[in-house]
């Protein structure tokens, strides 16, 4: 029995020695892995804090620039937006570029604003931002450009599968009217009216355009249903529920 105890103690001691030897071999790797995990967590938390603080600062800079623009201090707004576009974080540099283009339009430099929006569209990998820039350029070109100018920017957006098609079609219709083709403008506006996903605001606007063209004798009288839609649109606008500019003839 005593021999069994001795053998057991010797066996346990040998196991203990083997465990200590094994630990000495693997300890550096275990400790290194633990340190690496702690470092990764620390870096991730630090980066999250940094990006959050940077985004917050960029947001404040954008609002400061917009406040300067609201006060008609366009020079200060331009300088602030230039700095944000160069050094901002996240999506704020792109927002700054959109705001800079808007400032150009506000200052009367329509050609410069159109060029800025075109440059934005060409630089965007995000499809929706690209389309937004093209729509903004086309909005300016309705008054200052040609029908071809407008169509060159939004014709591909006016397709049936595009979620921005209704705005694109409204702009094309206005450009067609300005070009003297009231019949084509009416057809384009009716495509918006017949779109089941068109919201009330845009439906009222295009119905108002059709009503004005009809009252001016530029297009044939509408059917009863079309006339009712136009009348409802005019009544809504007159009541102040929806402000809609009339298309200006050449």
What does this structure look like?
With 250 residues, this protein is mainly alpha-helical. Helices cover 78% and strands 0% of the residues. It starts with a helix and ends in a 12-residue tail after the last helix. Helix 3 runs antiparallel to helix 4 (110-123) and helix 6 (147-154) packs antiparallel against helix 7 (165-178).
- Poorly predicted spans: 1-7, 34-43
Summed up, the helix count is 10
Provide the β-strand percentage band.
under 5%
SSE sequence, one letter per element: HHHHHHHHHH
User: Which shape, going by the Cα principal axes?
Assistant: elongated
Number of strands: 0
Average per-residue pLDDT, rounded, comes to: 78
Gyration radius, in Å: 33 Å
Percent of residues in helices? over 70%
Structural class: mainly alpha
Tell me the span between the first and last alpha carbons: 117 Å
The major β-sheet equals: none
List keywords for this structure.
single chain, disordered N terminus, 0% strand, mainly alpha, 250 residues, elongated
Write the layout of secondary structure elements.
Blueprint (H helix, E strand, L loop, with lengths): L1 H69 L3 H14 L4 H15 L3 H14 L3 H18 L2 H8 L10 H14 L3 H12 L6 H16 L8 H15 L12
Can I get a quick summary?
The protein is mostly helical and 250 residues long. Helix content is 78%, strand content 0%.
């Amino acid at each position: 029995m005593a021999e069994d105890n001795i053998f057991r103690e010797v066996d346990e001691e040998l196991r203990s020695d083997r465990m200590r030897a094994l630990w000495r071999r693997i300890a550096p790797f275990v400790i290194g892995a633990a340190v690496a995990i702690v470092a990764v967590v620390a870096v991730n938390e630090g980066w999250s804090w940094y990006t959050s603080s940077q985004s917050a600062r960029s947001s404040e800079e954008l609002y400061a620039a917009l406040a300067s623009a609201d006060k008609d201090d366009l020079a200060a707004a331009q300088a602030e937006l230039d700095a944000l576009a160069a050094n901002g974080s996240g999506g704020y540099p792109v927002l700054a570029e959109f705001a800079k283009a808007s400032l150009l339009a506000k200052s009367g430099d329509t050609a410069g604003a159109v060029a800025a929006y075109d440059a934005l569209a060409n630089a965007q990998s995000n499809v929706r931002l690209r389309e937004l820039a093209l729509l903004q350029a086309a909005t300016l070109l309705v008054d200052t450009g040609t029908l071809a100018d407008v169509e060159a920017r939004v014709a591909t957006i006016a397709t049936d599968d595009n979620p921005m098609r209704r705005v694109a079609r409204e702009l094309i219709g206005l450009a067609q009217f300005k070009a003297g083709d009231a019949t084509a403008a009416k057809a384009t506006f009716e495509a918006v009216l017949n779109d089941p996903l068109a919201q009330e605001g845009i439906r009222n606007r295009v119905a108002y355009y059709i009503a004005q063209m009809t009252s001016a004798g530029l297009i044939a009288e509408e059917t009863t249903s079309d006339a009712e839609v136009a009348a409802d649109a005019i009544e809504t606008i007159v009541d102040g529920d929806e402000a809609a500019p009339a298309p200006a003839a050449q």
